[in-house]
Design goal:
Strand content of chain A: 5-15%
Number of domains of chain B: 3
Distance between the termini of chain A: 21 Å
Oligomer: heterodimer
Number of helices of chain B: 16
Structural class of chain B: alpha+beta
Largest sheet of chain B: 10 strands, mixed
Strand order of the largest sheet of chain A: 1-3-2-4-6-5-10-11-9-7-8
């Protein structure tokens, strides 16, 4: 069977109706991986044997008439920074080589332990989620299934390509400045970054803890809505998770959007946005208008400062969050144990962090140092408050904001790797959402002349995931391109 | 310059483990790690494993509120915890979650004071602030830190809740420091937040300077008793350097409690940069007036209030009441004891207090024990007071019984066993008194002009009975004999 013919909700129905077995689904998943992953490199570690055993067990349970979890053993791809008990979780960094968490992240408890998703492997990512291309992984890059010479976006590149290529049916990513939406956009899938505090971060290995949020990556909006329902809600172990009612996201998808007011911020269509991207997004906005939504112009005046603000804050936080990796208690330690304790720390960290991670630790440490703190970190916090206020003002006028996810489509591998500032600049449309802590959804809305996917971003007000999923679903149904497959399956590699 | 002109300024940073908490500051691991096998009271949170997040122990906020109220600090209504960043093996996250009163941060509470009495003068030791933080892991060395071939790390202590009390540099002598710590210990005990007699529950850093010169910071003073010793050493060291014309350096020094000296650790040419910034894995802490009011109402009686009450209810002197309340268990023992005997009045209260403070506490200090760890019962002390009052036992004998009393033996049993009952046999005392008069004609002669000389004769009788004669009866008999002889009238 071809997994990529089906959405997650369709497979659940088929399994429920006993048209197919869970084992068949899991086997198909690994067949697809065997067939394609040498060229795509979505995964960095697999749990094939355990997954097949689990599938067998669930099939038996089903046969005996037992109630299965809502996810019916669907093949699930996990980003390599979400802790999975007794499974290598490495953030695609040498420094965490061999680390196997003794506990499950909260989202894993919900998806796997509670609702019966079957973990098939961990996916590739930029080292410690620091990047927009999945090129900085210590395991090497992931290749975009739409064009294997190009990046899949990042940092959750492997999760996005595993969905795009039908290797997995549901996946998790994490989004600090666009790390779910960017690869969703470049790889032509749906990615949702929830409101900060909507999903527990317990077990998410931190990059920048005031910005990080876990979210689903799927082939269609309905599947993301289903996953979000499962992973959302207050967790006692994450003090920043918030106790606000979790909506029935799936049920609300089919609501009409004719009373919605959608804001279009002109700053999000500025010079850096490629013409084809602009045209495709504008066309989708017209479709939404034709579905009854009212379109108005709004403004996010501080957008031009967001990249600088975002990078300052995330580097400062990262410099502290990554301080614990010294090779003493877990992970990799230097072979050269000569010198004192601090020499060992220095060597371990210099040898095992990649260049982008080192750059961010250096810059973050510098910006937090005495004398620079006010100039950089405190200043950045002030600008962050202004950006947040921009959105608060905009949401007084509209229900949701619509704009491109990325200003460009997938670029070539190696194209930006030596130009960090240019690489950072492409986050301009995603990172303001994290600075403000808002939810945002990216869905494919078209293709450029190279047949590369273009992402459409819907930014919601706080905890209005229901609203953006509803708009996203309506647009997705209208565009009807979500079943389109990347050329890799047509034997064209 | 003569030594009298050296004005000493001392500021203390006292770290106290809130040992009465059930769990650590940011996870549910047990706080009660003493005696446990190394690295058994740990979880992903206090081990700082990747992906783990801190969750605040709300009871710690309540305990800190109690202490802040007791110390009359101003509690901050809203604050963030801050990360203090530095690398060391005892710090599994590479930062310590603490509080900071700069860079937009706030302490738990500001100001406050403890009133001490030195040489009968009252003085307020002003506090700068108190704040909460997590304890690092415990490092274990083989022998001394300098010669140990390895360092072992025990994370059982990692994440235990510490409260730091920072004084202003207003302490002027080691005695004042000792009195301050004595009062602080008492307040902590009354607040029911910690038992500071537990090993390792207290750590003090002391900033010491001679006015007009750079200060040094003595770190690693691991008990209140050591503080006075360390301060004395450091002051002498600084004075000696000045006498030899040397310049004092701004530096951090390590208190070596085995050799009882401070050793220079590092020069502080610039302040260590801990890159403090808000800990955003926790939400800001909010403490409203209702909460403070509730904690205040539930706060147990504090030592100073109790001293007032003891003066009022038991007619004790200021000196007695202040001393009695220092240790809550001692004060409880006093109240339980004197209230158990309805015949007791102010005189007996005073006697009970004297026995307790002069003899029993002395014995406890000598044996490094607390009253709860002995078998002493209040009944024994009330018996003692009553036996002395009724003349069944002399004070001198009573004092010799203290050691046995602490073992829980009753007074009557002790007296039986040791035959130390007071001699009140009149005929026997009369015989001895006559002997004394016959043997000391010079003293008898003195009695004609000096009635106080009678005491000397009584003393002779006491000597013959090795203190066992009833002094009241003896006095009566001697006066009667001397009157009969016409010596006195």
């Amino acid at each position: 069977m071809e997994l990529d013919n089906y959405m997650a909700y369709e497979l659940i129905e088929k399994i429920h109706n006993r048209e197919i077995t869970i084992r068949e689904v899991i086997q198909a998943s690994f067949d697809k991986i065997d067939e394609t992953d040498q060229s795509i490199h979505s995964f960095v570690n697999y749990s094939k044997q355990k997954a097949l055993e689990k599938a067998k067990e669930y099939d038996l349970n089903l046969k005996e008439g037992q109630q299965l979890g809502k996810l019916y053993g669907l093949p699930f791809a996990n980003k390599d920074l979400i802790c999975l008990k007794n499974f290598p979780t490495t953030c695609c960094s040498h420094i965490l080589e061999g680390f196997q968490p003794p506990y499950n992240a909260h989202v894993i408890e919900r998806l796997v332990e509670q609702e019966g998703a079957i973990h098939i492997g961990n996916t590739n990512m930029d080292e410690f989620a620091m990047g927009s291309s999945t090129e900085s992984s210590c395991y090497g890059p992931t290749y975009n299934p739409w064009d294997l010479k190009r990046v899949p976006g990042g940092s959750s590149g492997g999760s996005a390509t595993s969905i795009a290529s039908g290797q997995a049916i549901i996946a998790l990513g994490s989004d600090t400045g666009g790390s779910i939406r960017c690869p969703a956009s470049f790889s032509g899938v749906v990615g949702l970054k929830p409101t900060y505090g909507r999903v527990s971060r317990y077990g998410l290995i931190a990059f920048a803890n005031s910005l990080d949020q876990i979210g689903p990556i799927t082939k269609c909006v309905r599947d993301s809505a289903m996953m979000l329902e499962i992973i959302s809600g207050k967790d006692q172990l994450d003090s920043t998770s918030i106790n606000i009612k979790v909506d029935n996201y799936v049920e609300e998808l089919k609501n009409s959007i004719n009373k919605k007011v959608l804001g279009v911020p002109k700053e999000f269509f500025g010079e850096g946005v490629e013409k084809t991207v602009k045209r495709s997004v504008e066309k989708s906005i017209q479709k939404l208008e034709s579905l009854g939504a009212t379109i108005i112009e709004v403004t996010i005046p501080h957008l031009e400062y967001t990249v600088a603000t975002y990078y300052l804050i995330c580097m400062c936080e990262a410099s502290s969050n990554l301080a614990r990796y010294d090779g003493i208690r877990y992970g990799k330690i230097t072979d050269d144990l000569s010198g004192d304790l601090f020499d060992v720390f220095r060597k371990t960290r210099s040898e095992n962090f990649g260049p982008e991670v080192r750059r961010r630790i250096f810059l973050g440490t510098y910006a937090l140092s005495a004398g620079y703190y006010e100039m950089f970190y405190l200043k950045a916090l002030k600008v962050r408050a202004l950006i947040k206020q921009d959105f608060v003002n905009a949401f007084k006028l509209c229900n949701s904001i619509v704009c491109p996810t990325m200003p460009i489509t997938a670029f070539k591998i190696g194209e930006l790797i030596d130009n960090p500032l240019q690489m950072y600049a492409i986050d301009i449309l995603t990172c303001p959402v994290n600075l403000a802590g808002l939810p945002a959804l990216s869905i494919p809305c078209g293709f450029d002349k190279n047949n590369l996917p273009i992402g459409f971003q819907i930014i919601g007000n706080y905890f209005d995931e229901k609203g953006i999923l509803n708009i996203g679903y309506q647009l997705e149904q209208e565009l009807n391109i979500y079943r389109k497959k990347p050329p890799i399956f047509k034997g064209g590699i | 310059m003569s030594s009298q002109n050296y004005e000493i300024m001392i500021g203390l940073e006292v770290h106290i483990q809130l040992t009465n908490l059930k769990s650590k500051l940011f996870c549910s691991c047990s706080n009660d790690y003493r005696g446990a096998d190394p690295n058994t009271y740990v979880c992903p949170i206090c081990l700082g494993l990747p992906g783990s997040l801190p969750v605040l122990n709300k009871k710690a906020i309540e305990f800190a509120t109690r202490l802040a109220i007791a110390l009359e600090c101003k509690i901050n209504h809203r604050f963030w915890f801050y990360r203090k960043n530095y690398h060391y093996v005892d710090l599994p996250k590479g930062f310590q979650i603490s509080q900071y009163n700069k860079a937009g941060g706030k302490a738990f509470a500001d100001g406050g004071k403890i009133t001490i009495k030195v040489n009968n003068h009252k003085k307020d030791i002003l506090l700068n602030r108190i704040h909460l933080e997590e304890d690092p892991a415990r490092l274990v060395h083989k022998g001394s830190i300098t010669t140990s071939p390895y360092t072992l790390v025990d994370y059982n202590r990692s994440g235990v809740c510490l409260i730091e009390i920072v004084t202003e540099p207003v302490i002027n002598s080691p005695e004042e420091a000792r009195e301050f710590l004595k009062q602080l210990k008492s307040i902590v005990q009354y607040s029911e937040i910690a038992n500071l007699d537990l090993q390792g529950s207290v750590r003090v850093d002391a900033n010491i300077s001679i006015k007009g010169h750079e200060r040094s910071e003595a770190k690693n003073i691991n008990s209140f008793k050591e503080v006075e010793r360390a301060l004395l050493h450091e002051i002498v060291r600084q004075k000696n350097l000045l006498k030899r014309g040397k310049t004092l350096l701004l530096e951090t020094r390590h208190w070596d409690d085995k050799r009882r000296i401070t050793i220079s650790l590092r020069k502080k040419e610039f302040e260590a940069d801990y890159r403090y910034f808000p800990e955003q894995d926790l939400t800001p802490i909010e403490i409203d007036d209702d909460f403070i009011e509730r904690v205040k109402n539930e706060l147990p009686e504090m030592p100073s209030e109790r001293a007032h009450r003891l003066r009022r209810e038991y007619d004790l002197s200021e000196f007695d009441s202040d001393n009695l309340v220092l240790d809550k268990d001692i004060a409880n023992f006093f109240e339980d004891g004197v209230n158990s005997d309805p015949s007791f009045g102010p005189n007996e209260y005073k006697q009970f207090c004297n026995w307790l403070m002069n003899n029993i506490v002395g014995w406890l200090n000598e044996h490094s024990m607390t009253i709860k760890n002995t078998k002493l019962h209040t009944k024994q002390v009330t018996d003692l007071v009553n036996y002395v009052k009724e003349g069944l036992i002399t004070t001198k004998i009573a004092k010799s019984l203290i050691g046995d009393l602490m073992e829980g033996v009753s007074v009557s049993k002790l007296l039986e066993k040791k035959g130390k009952a007071r001699i009140s046999d009149q005929i026997f005392i009369e015989k001895l008194s006559k002997e004394a008069i016959d043997e000391n004609p010079k003293i008898v002669e003195d009695c004609i002009n000096n009635p106080k000389a009678v005491e000397a004769l009584i003393g002779r009788v006491m000597k013959k009975t090795r203190g066992q004669a009833d002094p009241g009866i003896t006095r009566e008999i001697i006066i009667e004999l001397l009157t009969k002889m016409g010596i006195i009238d």
